[in-house]
């Protein structure tokens, strides 16, 4: 299943190029808004803009996971593999895709708008946990929304409230990394983020078979 998703993505390279273009153009617009006016981007605004860009990149990248699958193709999968294999493969693929986009986005963002991060390993680890958290949550939400008629709207309605607690923790840890605080100040938040990711994967594994049969 993971190989199938990678092959489809490679055949539809325009979609991947579009996501990279989205990240680059958004960063460039931020650069035009702040740097060309002679003002330096404050650290809290730098942090907030980065997570806004990553959040909407995640929605655009992961939303098509189930929404692009036709009902006939899903029926074909139903005869071949178990539903747990489908959801785990989707989560693994979306996690790798979003992790790559997040690291590329951070590199471009830091190159264009400066890098005020004082604890880079902590910030990169937080970005990785955020990418994995967005991928797991949005994959399950995409599977639910694909069963509805107005799936795109339902995806946004279900996805954003679920990700708000995760986003608050991510912003807190990244703020600590920007300020150069000790790891102990972020340890509980990092463990909570890891636990949330594992809970979402477990819930997806247990509940997706019921959604698959509907």
From TrEMBL:
Q: Which Pfam families match?
A: CcmB
Q: For this UniProt entry, which segments traverse the membrane? A: 14-36, 48-67, 87-111, 123-146, 153-171, 191-212
What is the protein's membrane topology class? Multi-pass membrane protein
The record's annotation in InterPro entries points to: Cyt_c_biogenesis_CcmB
**Subcellular locations according to the entry:** Membrane
| Keywords recorded for this protein, A-Z | Membrane, Transmembrane, Transmembrane helix
Query: What does the sequence similarity comment in the record state about its family?
Result: Belongs to the CcmB/CycW/HelB family.
Q: Indicate what this protein is called per its UniProt record.
A: Heme exporter protein CcmB
Instruction: Look up and give the organism this protein is from.
Output: Hymenobacter fastidiosus
């Amino acid at each position: 299943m993971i190989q199938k998703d990678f092959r489809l993505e490679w055949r539809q390279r325009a979609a991947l190029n579009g996501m990279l273009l989205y990240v680059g153009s958004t960063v460039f617009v931020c650069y035009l808004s702040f740097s060309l006016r002679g003002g330096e981007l404050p650290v809290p605004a730098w942090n907030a803009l980065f997570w806004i860009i990553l959040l909407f990149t995640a929605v655009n990248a992961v939303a098509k996971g189930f929404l692009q699958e036709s009902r006939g193709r899903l029926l074909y999968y139903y005869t071949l593999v178990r539903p747990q294999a489908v959801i785990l493969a989707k989560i693994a693929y979306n996690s790798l895709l979003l992790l790559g986009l997040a690291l590329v986005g951070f590199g471009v963002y830091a190159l264009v708008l400066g890098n005020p991060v004082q604890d880079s390993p902590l910030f990169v680890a937080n970005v990785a946990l955020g990418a994995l958290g967005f991928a797991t949550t949005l994959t399950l939400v995409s599977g639910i929304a694909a069963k509805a008629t107005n799936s795109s709207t339902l995806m946004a309605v279900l996805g954003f409230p679920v990700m708000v607690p995760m986003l608050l923790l991510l912003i807190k840890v990244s703020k600590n990394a920007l300020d150069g605080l000790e790891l102990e100040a972020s340890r509980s938040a990092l463990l909570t983020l890891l636990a949330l990711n594992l809970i979402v994967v477990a819930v997806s594994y247990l509940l997706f078979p019921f959604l698959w049969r509907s």
